[in-house]
Structure formats: C-alpha cells, structure tokens
Amino acid sequence: MNLKNLKLNLSNKNKDLIPQVLTVLLLILVVIYFTINAQSNMGNRGISFGFGFLSQESSFDITFSLIDYDGSHSYARAFLVGLLNTILVSAIGIFFATILGVTVGIGRLSQNYLIAKAAECYVEIFRNIPLILQIFFWYFAALRALPLTVDSINFYDISFLNVKGWYVPRFIWTNFSIFFYSIILAIILIIFLTKYARKQRDEFGKQLPILYISFGLLIVLPLLTFLFGGVSLSFEIPELEQLSKTVYVYKGGVSIIPELISLALALSMYTATFIAENVRAGILGVNKGQKEAAASIGLTKGQILKLVVMPQALRIIIPPTTNQYLNLTKNSSLAAAIAYPDIVLVFAGTALMQTGRAIEIISITMLTYLSLSLSISVFMNWYNKKMAIKEK
Amino acid sequence: MKNIFIRPNKENLTSFVTIGSFLVFISFIDVLANTFLNLNFTSFLPSKLSYFAPLILGTIGLYLIRIEFSGNKLLDRINTNFNSSNLNAILSLIVIFTLIKYIPPILNWFFFDANFAGNTKEDCTGSGACWVFVKVWFNRFVYGMYPDSEQWRINSAFILLFALVGASFFVPAKLKKYFLIFLIFVYPIIGLKLISGGEFGLKYVETGAWGGLSLTFIVSAFALILCFPVGMFLALGRRSSLPAIRYTSIGFIELWRGVPLITVLFMSAVMFPMFLPDGTYVDKLIRVLIAITLFEAAYMAEVIRGGLQALPKGQYEAAKSLGMGYWRMHFLIILPQALKLVIPGIANTFLALVKDTPLIFVVGLLELAGMVNLAKTNPKWLGMAMEGYVFAGLVFWVICYAMSRYSQNLEKKLSTER
Fold first, then answer.
1. Which one in A160, A293, B70, B146 has a CA-CA gap of 20 to 30 Å to A341?
2. Which residues contact residue A206 at a Cβ distance below 8 angstroms, ignoring those fewer than 6 apart?
3. DSSP letter, residue B4
4. Residue A66: φ, ψ to 5°
C-alpha cells in the first residue's frame, strides 16, 4: 500500500517535470542544429555573422525619404529611412482610418435607412477584399488613370494632382520652435486647467466650460507667437516648369508620391471597416438603462453622451481598435508590393540583396516590428487595467 | 422669431405636402436631367449655387413634408426612415443624388459599354471594360501555369474534396470519426500527389507552375487544416501550469503575432534555407505552407484561448472529480465546449487566412492576384489593370462574403441552442 502511494507521488512529480525538460531540451537542440547549419552555410559563402555591415556605405538610392539620404549614407541610415517611412504611412493611415471608421460606425446605427445601408455596403465591400488587392487596385488601376503632368487636376491653384503624384505647398516657418513651444505650453496649461476644474466641481459643484477654454488656449497662444514672437509662415507653391517640348515637371512644394497615396488610401479604407464595426459594437454595448438613468437625473443630451455613454462605449471600443492600429502598422509592410520604400522594401529587400546577410537583416526587421507591437500591447494592458470597472 | 419659419402642421397637410413634394420632385428632375441629358436648368444661377440648387430645393421640400403623425402611412414611413431631421434630409438627398450620378457610369463601364466578344485587345472597341482580357486569361487565372492537358487533375482533386465533404453529412455517426480522420490526414496526401504527380504514371508538375485561384484554394485549405491542431496545442500550452511549456508557448505566439506575414514569408524564402544543412532543398510551396500555418496558428491559439478562459471553472473541477486526466479532460469536456464558444473567432481567422494568401507572391508563387499582376504586364494586354483587379476583387469578395455570412449563420444557430 505504502509503496504504491510512493510510486504515485513520484509519477506525479515526474509528470510535471518530464514534459518541461523535454520541451527545453528540444528547443536547445533545434537552436544548436540551426546555429551549426547557419555557421557552416555562412562559412561556405565566406561571410561571418555580425552587424558591422550596418555602418558600411549603402550605395543605393531611395525614392522617398523624410530625412537626408543618398547612396553615400550607411545601411543603418537606410534602415532609419525605411522605419520613418513605415511610421509615416501608418500614422496617416491611422488618422484617416479613425475618422472614416468612426463616421461609418455611427452611420451604421443611423435611423436614416439610406445612411445605414450605405455604411453597411461600405463595410461589407471593403472588408471582404484582400488588402493587397486593394493596394494594387489603387496603385495600378485608379491612380494610373489620373491625367499627365501638363493637365493636372488643379485645386485652387495651390495644389496639383497628376499621375506622378500629388503636389502640395510647402510650409516655410521662421522661428518654428517658438510656435512649437507655445503649443506645448497650451497643452500643459489645459492639463492643469482640467485638474483645477475637476477640483472645483468636486468641492463646490461648479462646472467650468473647459472645452471652450482649451480650444481658446490652443488657438490664442500660438496666434500670440505670430504677433509678438517673431514667428511667420509662408508657403512655397508648386509650379509647373517646362523642361523640354513635351516634358513638364512641378518644381517646389512637397510632392506626395502615388505609392504613398495608394498605400495610405487602401490601408485606411480597409482598416476603417474594422474600426466601424468596433465603434458600432461599443455604442450598442452601452445599456439603454444607463441613458435613461442619466436623463432621469437631469443631464442634458450632450452631457449624457459625454459623461455616461462615451466613457462606457470607449471602454469597449478602444482595446480592439488599438489592435486594428497595430494591424494597420503591420499591414503597411505590404508596401513592398508597390515599391513604397518602407522598412521591408528598403531593408529586407534592397539591403538584403546587396549584402546577402539574410539572418541579421530579417532578424532586425522582425525585431523592429516585434518591439513595436509588444510596446503597444504593454501599453494596452496598462490602459485596460486603468479603465477596467472598479467594483466596490 | 417663431413666425419667421413656417412650421408644417397637420391642418394644412395637403398644401404643405403638395408644395413639398413638388420641390423634391423638381430637385430630382434637375439631377436626372443633369446626369442623363446634360441639361442644366439652373444655369442662370451662379455656378456654386447652381451646383447645390437641387440639394437646397430638396431640403426645403423635405422640411415642408416633415409632419409628424400625419395619418398618411407612406408619408409617415418616409419621414421616420429618411427625413427625421434637417440633417437626415440632407444626408438622404446626398446619398440618392450620388447614386443617381455615379451608378449609371459604373454600370455602363461594367455591362452596357463593355466588350465581351473577341480574342484580342483590338476587339475591345467600346468605352467600357474589356472583359475579353479576363476571358482569354481565365484559364491562367484559375490554373496558373499548370499545363492545359493536366488540368483535369486539379479539377478531380477538388471534386473529390467536395464529394468527401458532401458525403460526410450522410455518413452514419459511428463512422464519422474515421471519415474525418481520412479527410484530414489521408486526403491531403492523395490530393497533393494527384496535383503534383510524379508517380502512378502522372506527369510531374513542379510547384512553380501551380498558380491562380486553385493555388489560393490549395494554400488556404492546407494552412486551414494544419493551423487548427497547432493552434489548439499552443492554446493549451499557454494555459498550462508547467512554466517551461507556458513560456515557450507565450514566446512562440507573441513572436508570430508581433510580425507581419510578409516578413515571415521573407524569412521562409531567404533565412530558413540558411538554417538547413547545405544542399537540402525544401520546396518553395512547402516552405510557404509551413510559414503561413505557423503564423495563423498563433492567431488561432489566441482565439481558442479566449474560449478556454470563458469556460467556468466548474467544468474543469467536475472533469477532474470524475478522475479524468489532463488529455481526457481537455478532449472530452473542455475543448468541445470552448471551440463552440469561439466559432466566430475561428471563422474570422480563416477569413484572414484566405485574404492573406495573395501575399505568397513575395516568394514567387502566383495565385489569383499574382496572375493578374503578371497578365497585365503582358505586352499584348497593357492597360488592363482595372479589369483584372476588379475581376480578382469580385472573386475574393464572393468567397469571403460567403464565408462571413456562413459563420454569422452558424453563430446564430449555436446561440439559440444555448
């Protein structure tokens, strides 16, 4: 009897230990196997593992860059250019996807039959077509149908759209830093003001019109810098220039390349459908009784929306929407398909072809994306904890 | 102040409705004439005003007919559904006018001015779409570069699959288990052998020649079948009480979920061969299948984990109190319930998988979207991008929409059961 018990205990302990040891062993073996193979493969090709190549001269050009870059810069700088381009297109995409998604999501709940149906059609159409196909469509089909440089579409003589891209005025600032600081100052003031207003409300029951004051601050402070701080702004408007008999180009201004336009367009329209569904679910998720209770204690319609519905709806909307932002950022890697110079095309494409350092470059690229998503998910966990309903 | 605006009321119902609907009617006539006859009745007005004239007229008209509880059923229905406020009236008008303005040109391009007959680009004389392009390339869009004479093999593989799936509904319950095992473990091998050939007197067709819509199906079907068990074990691993297994699972899941699929495919193309002994060659398609499977399995694991977490603790305790071990508990009690809970999530993952398949172009495999890309660069068919992408988009849309509808129905059916 005793012996049997002992055996059982032992087997229980082993039961916990054996699979774990096996897993770890297997992992180690796989890693060793891969390392040995990689070493011998690299030895055969005469390269050794290392990140020294990052400081070498890249000697390739990138069509679109936010920072100074040409072939004489290093691979590390090319990586930075790609990363910035990824961030740029993701930021643009997130901005427009949010606006479009919220509009469509609210539209789907409209009492107006036409609006609700139109929003539904939009969601069903764009959600069910692969993103890559949408990018191809905008880039190869829709934007290629734009007019040539000579007869560009003209927006009030300051901005021009043609098959080569979209030309918009360039802002030329003097003393931009003062202007920038004034905005930061305004934001800090608003934060303090909100805290002060909350204190006033809690202690004396007074409501301060924070929204109007914040808007006023945001407008007045930067305006003051224009009047007294020596800040000024002028525009450089793109102008048509004739190079030869048939060749025309736009000089000056900022040119937004068609790759960026089509990528941002496709990303935001695709992601907006998912955000719209989140918004709809969030608003539907707020109990009707909440609104009725709020109305019965005499809150106005605006107050109900701001103080009762939105905080609860946002709790449902924000986590999946952040996930969509993350998806959008990851999906921006499809840029490689239409040659928008993002991190995948520049680094995992061109740089890899030139150096042949597959392991290092793919690892860096994956790590970049990984750290991006992990940091966002850490932030999300923190946010969820903060926003979770605290039950007493 | 109140008297400045006329308030439509019930007493003067007839006159208000007459004037209002007349104004709406005029605004519609104006838009229709503008679109179809190229006439502009309001050209005497300044250009901006003339452009918005129908909108303004229509809004006023709709304002006049907005009478609550008028007693007229049609009027009441219009008012509640399209015309409940000024904003709604304007929005309704904008939607209707946009439809009137843009639907006819789109239809014209699609059908009425489109070209269906002929075999070359020169046969496309109309101003609409050139569907001849799709017609000529249809075979390639479906089968890729697969040799024409061997295409019956792809067909029969798919017919066999559909026959098996169809038959599974009629198989007696006792045999269903074996049937499912056959479908999941044996059929893929038969299907793959049938399509790739090289044995039983079938000509060998290398995977580089596979392509088109059939490749889309092959890749999605394989990844779908394979990613499910992998995802299930990862989900169980992540909830395991054994730290080594838990952290391995977490690491694996988060690694794949944190990177875009395109980098995973790049990895399978350029980095993976470096990790294998020199000279070993793993077929491109196999590498892609492994990459996609692992990638989707990580997402699947998270979905299944959601189902596992949603189950009440009592289910685990009840199973344990019956003396069930870990595996029996999970396979007989926990997983059947958990999987049922997350069917929508599983369907969404499958949907994402189908939408992700076009990405395999990065390793040089051309499924439908890739074939369109190839076809449109053919010198004889330049300028056919629009037709190609619209066709491919329609095909994908039909597949994905059907899938999402099916999953919604399934969800409804199961939710009533509970």
1. A160
2. A200
3. T
4. -85, -25
Model confidence at A391: pLDDT above 60 = no
CB-based contact, B106 to chain A, within 8 Å: no
What is the helix (H) or strand (E) element at residue A289, kind and residue range? helix A288-296
Nearest to B340 by CA among B306, B383, B382: B306
Q: What is the assigned CATH class of domain A75-169+245-386?
A: mainly alpha
Closest to A163 measured CA to CA, from A93, A97, A248: A248
Contact (CB, 8 A) for A282 and A316: yes
How many angstroms separate the CA of residue A348 from the nearest CA in chain B? 8
pLDDT digits (tens, 9 = 90+) for A274-328: 999 999 988 888 888 888 999 899 888 778 888 888 888 888 888 888 889 989 9
pLDDT higher at A15 or A248: A248
Sheet holding A165-168, edge to edge: A153-155, A159-162, A165-168, A254-256
CB contacts of B359 in chain A (<8 Å) are: 132, 334
Nearest to A133 among B273, B386, B396 (CB): B396
**Strand, helix or coil for residue A234:** strand
Average pLDDT over residues A159-186: 82
pLDDT above 80: residue A258:
yes
- Is the torsion defined by CA of A194, A195, A196, A199 positive or negative? positive
Q: What are phi and psi of B78, to 5 degrees?
A: -60, -45
Report whether B327 contacts B288 (CB < 8 A). no
CA distances from A52 to A35, A55, B291 (A): 19, 6, 29
Fold of the domain spanning B131-146+205-417:
MetI-like fold (1.10.3720)
* A26 shares contact with chain B (CB less than 8 Å): no
A233/B contact by beta carbon, under 8 A: no
DSSP code, position B277:
P
Token duo for residue B119: 């075999």
- Global pTM? 0.86
- Which pLDDT value is given to residue A293? 92
| B-proximal residues of A, 322-381, CB under 8 Å | 330-331, 333-334, 336-337, 344, 348, 352, 358-359, 362-363, 365-366, 369-370, 372-374
Q: Is the pLDDT of residue A13 over 70?
A: no
How many CB atoms within 10 Å of residue A276? 26
Considering only CA atoms, which of B288, B285, B295 is closest in space to residue B268? Answer: B288
What are A250's strand-pairing partners?
A: A240
- Across all residues in chain B, what is the average pLDDT? 82
Query: Which of B80, B244, B386 faces A141 most closely, judged by CB atoms?
Result: B386
Inspect the interface and report whether the beta carbons of A112 and B397 lie closer than 8 Å. no
For CATH 1.10.3720.10, list the domain ranges present in chain B: 131-146+205-417
Return the domain boundaries, chain A. 75-169+245-386, 171-236
pLDDT tens-digit series, residues A21-63: 888 899 899 888 888 888 888 787 777 777 777 788 777 888 7
Q: Token pair for residue B300?
A: 């699947």
Please tell me what DSSP assigns to residue A233.
E
Listed in sequence order, the DSSP H helices in chain A are: 2-45, 75-108, 113-127, 131-136, 176-204, 210-228, 258-285, 288-296, 301-303, 310-331, 343, 352-355, 358-387
Q: Is B145 helix (H, G, I), strand (E, B) or coil?
A: coil
**B36-89 pLDDT, tens digit each:** 777 777 767 777 777 788 888 888 888 888 877 777 788 888 888 888 788 888
